[in-house]
Structure formats: C-alpha cells, structure tokens
Amino acid sequence: MNPIDTSRRAFLGRTAAFAGVALAPGVLLYEFAAAREAGQEASAAVRWGMLVDTTRCASGCTACVDACNAEHGVPKASRPTDAQWIRKVELKDLRTGAVRSAPVMCQHCAEPPCVDVCPTGASFKRADGIVLVDRHTCIGCRYCMMACPYKARSFVHEPTTGQKTDTPRGKGCVESCNLCAHRVDRGEKPACVDACSAAGHRAIVFGDLNDPSSEIALRVRSVATSQLRADLRTDNGVRYQGL
Known about the structure:
By secondary structure, the chain is of the alpha+beta class. The protein is 24% helix and 18% strand.
C-alpha cells in the first residue's frame, strides 16, 4: 500500500462543502470545536494510544465492550449489522495451539485511510492523534468503512435511543471508537481501560506515546509489541503485546 496522500487529504478538508468554516489557515470549525470542547486545544505534542496485553486479556471477558456500550449509549450488538465500537476476537496460533483474546477497535492511525477517503471531512484526526467522526457532516456514504483495514467502523441503521450528551449518535451515520475523547479531555482514561482494571485484568494501558516517561511508552520500548496490519504503514495508536 502506498503512503497516504496527505496533500489530497488537506485538499478535501479545505474544500468539502459541509466540512466547516475556516477560522485560520489549516484550522476548520469542526476541528476547533472538538479540540476546544474541554476548554483546551488538542496538542500535536501528545499522541494518545493504547497497549493491549493479550497475555492478560481474559477469554470470555467483555468488561471493555460493556463499558464502552454504557459510556456511549450503544446497545449490545445482537446482529452482524448492529453498531459495535469494540469487539472481542479469539486468535489461535496454528503452530503452537496458543489462544489469545483481544479487543479490536479503531486503531487511531497516524495515517488513517478513513480520513483520506471521506468526501465531506466528517472523518478527521485531532492534533493529538484521536480519530473522530463528526456526525453532523457525515452523509452515510460508508467510504470510510470500506477503507478501514480493521473493520472498526459501524453504520447506524436504526433510530438511536439512550443518547449520551458527550457522544451524540444518529441514524444514517458512521461511528467508531473515539478513544473516549471527552474523558481524555477531562484528564481521565477511556472507559474500557478503567473497566479492564476494575475487572482485575489490567490488560489495557493508555497514555501518551510521545512522552518517553509514560507507562505506555516505557512498555513499548521494553517489550515486543505489534500493530495490526503493520504492513499497511498506517502507524496505529493501538499496539498489542503477545500476538
């Protein structure tokens, strides 16, 4: 796969009819609003990420999925077409027979294919690396779902209920893990991280990949970690240990 065409992405962001109003060169209204929601602008000095230790992730445990659903008002998935922000997958090494369980969600790529193909700018990446969908400009074309190598995005087919103030949802829109940006902006950890810790597994570490003294950066340097489909060179913000 060729590197993402960043100039094309910038062009789409500037010219999309409903993407937003330019406040300053390179700054759009929806980006400004998302970053300033907590009164503090997202900084490129930070790169938020997760490290999932599959050796600690318990098979059959759905604490992270349940917490995500509760935090964002997403009903439990019962059909293949239902929205699902995190899904648990079971992986088996055919050579050794070893089985690993792991959550898969939006990988918050540094070079997100979903952003590159979005015709309206609804899919965008904050300065701190969090990839989001603005449902007000999403037209439901689902190009981003086709472009995502991780099947991390869902289309909302039915009217939504149980709306959460921090995470508005809507029929006809695409949505995915937003790394609990509203919690992160308040200095908290994503809901799945807290739930995994409360369940006693502590399989998910969250933090600033750019901070060499952070727990996640120290772990990434000291143990073997991997990115899903590293061959695609999307530079994922979610890393896995034990795969």
